[in-house]
Design a protein that fits this description.
The complex is a heterodimer. Chain A has two domains: 78 residues, Methionine synthase domain (Methyltransferase, Methionine Synthase (B12-binding Domains), Chain A, domain 1); 118 residues, 3-Layer(aba) Sandwich (Rossmann fold), CATH 3.40.50.280. Helices cover 57% and strands 11% of the residues of chain A. Chain A contains nine helices and five strands, in the order ααααβαβαβαβαβα. The two termini of chain A are 34 Å apart. The chains are: A alpha/beta, B alpha/beta.
C-alpha cells in the first residue's frame, strides 16, 4: 500500500495543483521519506498519468506544460536534499532550434518534459548553426540531440544539421520535431521523429534503454 | 452574379453559380499580380513583398496601409477571386510608430515583438513585453477609438456592390499569449497564476472586441476571426478554460454580427474536433480552415455542414508550395467534392498563400476552382 503523502503528491500533480504538490513534498521531507521515493513514486508517477491523459485527449497542451512547470518547481525544492552520488541522470541531451528559426516554444516544452524525466539538458537556444550542434554534442558527449523546426523555410538547414551531426558525431541519436517536420521527413533524413513533447520524452527514454 | 452575391448565397447555404474562392495573398503575390511595388508596413504583423520599408512617421505608415489595400484589391480583381479582405493587422493607432529594439527587431503597439528576416523576406513574431504582473500593470493598451479605420472605408469604397468585404479580426484567443512571450508562458499562467491570465486576456479581449465593432460599424459584409487556439494535437486548453477566458468574446461578437445581419467565420489552425460543438453553440456561422493534416473536410461537412458554412482547405503546407499542377488541381477537386454540394462552402487554402507557395500554383488553384466548381454539382 502506498504512502498517503506520496499519493497526495501524485494526485496534486495530476490535478495541476502547484501548492498541493509543494505541500506534499514538504510533508514528505518532514517525514524523512527517501528522495528517490518522492521522485519515483510521487512525481514521476504523476507525470506519467498527466501524459496518459494528454494522449487520451482528456488533457491538452496547457496541462502538459503546467505539469512540467510544477515538476521544475518540485526539482528546485528537492535539489538541496539530493546527495550527488544518489542522482542518476537518464542521459545527456543537446537541444536547440535549427538555424534560421527563432521559435523556441516547442523546444522549451520538450526541455521541461525531459528534465522531469531526469535528463541533463544542454540548451543551445534558437537559430543554432549545424557546426554549433556538432561542436557542443562532441564537447558534452551527448547521447541525444533534439532539433526543433517550425518554419518550412528552414527545412534545408534542418537537413544540413542532421547531415553534419551524422558525419561529425557518428552514433549520436537525433530526434527532430516541430510544425514543419513529419515522420516521412525524419525517415528520409535518418532521424527519429516526435510529434509532440510527450512523445519526444518517451522516445528519449526508449532510446537510452537501447544504448 | 457578382462576387458578393456569389459569396452571400454560398454562406447562406444555397448554391450560387459557382464555388466562391478566397485566397489570403502574401504581399509578394500582390506585387506579382499587379506588377506594382507594395510598401512594407514596418510595425505591422505581416510583411511580404520586396518594397522599401516605411519606417517613418505615423502618417507614412497610414499612407502605406492605404496604398497596400488598393493593391490587394487590384490583385483580387486580377486573380479573379471573390473575397476581398481588410485586416485589423493593418489598423494602427493614429500616433503609432513601432519601437525599434535594433535594426531588425521591433515592438508593435500591442507589445508583440517581431524580427525581420530579410533572408526569407518576411518577419516573425518572437516575443512579447509582458513578463510579469508589474509589466501588465504598466502596460497601456491601444485605444480602439484612437485608431484609423480609413483602410476599412477604402475597402468598402473599392468593393462597391461587386465584392464582399471581409473584416479580418482577432479577439482574446491569440494576442494574449503573443504579448506574454509565448503559449508556454500563458499556459503556465492559466494554472499557476489564473488571475494574471484573466487580466491579460480581458485587457486584450475588450480592445480587440471594440476594434471589431468599429469595423462592423463601417459596413463590412462578414467577419473572419483568426485566433489560433489549437495545434495538431488538439485545442491548447480544456473546454472549461475556453469557456472562462476566450469564448465570452466569441459569443459577444457573434451576437453583434447577427444584430448587423452579417456572419462570423471562426478560423483556427489545428485539430478543433474536441471543441467544435461548443464553438458552434456559441453562434459562429462558419468554420475555417479544417486543417487537412488533422481534420477531414468531408466529415466536417457531413456532421456540421447544416449548422455552419465551411471555408477550406487546399493544403498550403505541401501541395501549394511543392506540388505539381496536377497535385494542386487534384486537391482543389478534393475540396469541392467533399464540401461544395448544397452550398455552404467557400474554397480557400488551408491557412494562407504564404511566401513559400509557388505563384503558378495559385493560378492553377483559381483555374481549377472555376473549371470544376460550377453549380449544379453533378458528380
Amino acid at each position: 500500500m502506498s504512502n498517503p503523502v506520496i499519493e497526495s503528491i501524485t494526485n496534486s500533480l495530476v490535478e495541476i495543483d502547484l501548492e498541493g504538490t509543494i505541500r506534499g513534498i514538504q510533508q514528505a521531507l518532514e517525514k524523512s521519506i527517501p528522495i528517490n521515493e518522492i521522485i519515483r513514486d510521487g512525481l514521476t508517477k504523476g507525470m506519467e498519468i498527466v501524459g496518459t491523459k494528454f494522449e487520451n485527449g482528456e488533457y491538452f497542451l496547457a496541462e502538459l506544460i503546467s505539469a512540467g512547470a510544477i515538476m521544475e518547481e518540485a526539482s528546485a525544492l528537492l535539489d538541496p536534499h539530493i546527495k550527488v552520488e544518489s542522482v542518476t541522470s537518464s542521459g545527456i541531451i543537446v537541444a536547440g532550434t535549427v538555424q534560421g528559426d527563432l521559435h523556441d516554444i516547442g523546444k522549451n516544452i520538450l526541455i521541461s518534459m525531459l528534465k522531469s524525466a531526469a535528463f541533463k539538458i544542454v540548451d543551445l537556444g534558437v537559430d543554432v548553426k549545424p557546426e554549433e550542434f556538432v561542436e557542443e554534442t562532441k564537447k558534452v558527449e551527448a547521447d541525444i540531440v533534439c532539433i526543433s523546426a517550425l518554419l518550412s523555410v528552414v527545412v534545408p538547414e534542418l537537413e544540413e544539421t542532421v547531415r553534419a551531426l551524422k558525419q561529425g558525431v557518428p552514433g549520436v541519436k537525433i530526434l527532430i520535431g516541430g510544425r514543419c517536420v513529419d515522420e516521412k521527413m525524419a525517415e528520409r533524413i535518418g532521424a527519429f521523429y516526435a510529434k509532440d513533447a510527450w512523445v519526444g520524452t518517451k522516445l528519449a527514454v526508449e532510446l537510452m534503454k537501447k544504448k | 452574379m457578382t462576387h458578393k452575391e456569389r459569396f452571400l448565397k454560398a454562406i447562406n447555404h444555397e448554391e450560387p453559380d459557382m464555388v466562391p474562392i478566397s485566397a489570403d495573398l502574401d504581399m509578394k503575390f500582390v506585387e506579382l499580380l499587379t506588377g506594382k511595388k507594395a510598401v512594407k508596413e514596418m510595425g505591422s504583423h505581416h510583411i511580404g513583398g520586396s518594397a522599401e520599408d516605411s519606417i517613418g512617421s505615423p502618417q507614412e505608415l497610414h499612407e502605406a496601409s492605404l496604398k497596400n489595400q488598393r493593391l490587394r484589391f487590384e490583385a483580387v480583381q486580377k486573380l479573379g477571386i471573390d473575397l476581398f479582405k481588410v485586416s485589423d493587422y493593418n489598423i494602427y493607432p493614429t500616433d503609432y510608430t513601432p519601437k525599434m529594439l535594433d535594426d531588425r527587431t521591433y515592438v508593435d503597439f500591442w507589445g508583440k515583438i517581431y524580427r525581420l528576416s530579410p533572408e526569407v523576406n518576411t518577419n516573425y513574431w518572437i516575443d512579447g513585453v509582458i513578463k510579469s504582473v508589474e509589466d501588465l500593470e504598466k502596460f497601456v493598451p491601444p485605444d480602439p477609438n484612437e485608431m484609423s479605420y480609413d483602410i476599412v472605408d477604402l475597402a468598402m469604397k473599392l468593393a462597391g456592390d461587386q465584392y464582399p468585404v471581409i473584416g479580418g479580426i482577432h479577439l482574446a484567443g491569440m494576442f494574449p499569449y503573443l504579448i506574454r512571450g509565448g503559449l508556454d508562458k500563458y499556459c503556465r499562467d492559466l494554472y499557476l497564476n489564473r488571475e494574471f491570465a484573466h487580466r491579460l486576456t480581458r485587457m486584450v479581449g475588450e480592445v480587440q472586441l471594440n476594434i471589431a465593432i468599429n469595423m462592423i460599424d463601417r459596413g463590412v459584409d462578414a467577419i473572419s476571426e483568426s485566433d489560433d487556439i489549437a495545434g495538431k494535437d488538439g485545442p491548447f486548453y480544456r473546454l472549461p478554460i475556453f469557456r472562462e477566458l476566450i469564448f465570452p468574446y466569441i459569443e459577444e461578437i457573434a451576437r453583434i454580427c447577427h444584430r448587423h445581419g452579417i456572419t462570423y467565420l471562426k478560423h483556427s489552425d489545428g485539430n478543433l474536433y474536441p471543441i467544435l460543438d461548443a464553438l458552434i453553440d456559441l453562434g459562429i456561422d462558419g468554420i475555417n480552415p479544417i486543417e487537412p493534416q488533422v481534420m477531414d473536410l468531408e466529415d466536417v461537412k457531413k456532421r456540421y455542414g447544416h449548422r455552419v458554412y465551411i471555408q477550406g482547405n487546399v493544403d498550403c503546407t505541401w501541395v501549394l508550395p511543392n506540388g505539381t499542377e496536377e497535385d494542386v488541381r487534384r486537391d482543389v477537386r478534393r475540396c469541392i467534392n467533399a464540401a461544395a454540394e448544397g452550398g455552404g462552402f467557400v474554397l480557400s487554402e488551408s491557412n494562407s498563400m504564404h511566401p513559400n507557395v509557388k505563384f503558378e500554383n495559385i493560378l492553377y488553384y483559381v483555374d481549377e476552382a472555376r473549371r470544376y466548381g460550377k453549380y449544379p454539382m453533378r458528380r
